[in-house]
Specification:
The chain contains eleven helices and ten strands. The protein is of the alpha/beta class and about 290 residues long. A six-stranded mixed sheet has the order 6-7-8-3-9-10, with helices on both faces. The radius of gyration is 21 Å and the shape is globular.
Amino acid sequence: MSKIVKAENICFAYEGETPEEKVEALKDVSFEIEEGSFVAILGRNGSGKSTLAKLLCMINAPDSGKLTVDGVEVTSEGASEEDIYRARRNVGMVFQNPDNQIVATIVEEDVAFGPENLGLPSEKIRHRVDEALETVGMTKYARHSAARLSGGQKQRIAIAGVIAMRRKCIIFDESTAMLDPLGRHEVMENIVKLNREEGITVIMITHYMNEASLADRVIVMEDGGIIMDGSPEEVFVRAEELWKAGLDVPQTTELMWRLRAEGLDVPLDAFEPEECAAAVRAALEKRGCL
């Protein structure tokens, strides 16, 4: 499978209080992301995850190292402006606050904003808008005022705007952080659908461990570097290390970990409530408690 992102020894620092002072945000970061995969990036505030997202969508450029996006080595002096522009067009970002991303008053006009700026003919724009709204389940709100939508609905419109641009990869930078539980559920359903049904590569930065458990792969960052990288099962089974890094684990994982600490033989890689319930029942039956 082809790699849509390849980072090799990436470093990045922000300016401090003086131009000479530098604050390191990323330190020698290397990883690859396969096209069509779903990757969650975790880390407490200041770990470097949002800085990394800005590099991947080419808002910022690394100070050193090599970054390849959609087959274009964007850090190479030999990369043409046309190649870099093409790479940028294939990576989109959905931000934490949807109000910062919605630019039009009417829903369908907002979704059309990106395709219009690409200079597409009106028939193609209409098709893309209709298709994107259908994908996120917002077709019936096409003529509604964006200001009257709920937080979850606004975020779905922001996602539709990125879909209408036909991005190969979408980065979600804590896109559910400002939503209530229902809104988070709505948005996560759409994120999973985009990945599983549309084949769009998803890179999701989140503080919610239950969301991260839906991914194919979890990357954990701390102090500008990667400290864990593996499947949700491989990462979340290391609960004590995650707690030490200031992070949580899915609620089901914490329950199973505490039950095991009390001597009950249960697996630590069960995430779904039904799976956990079945595992607990089996362990209790094995001990003759049921």
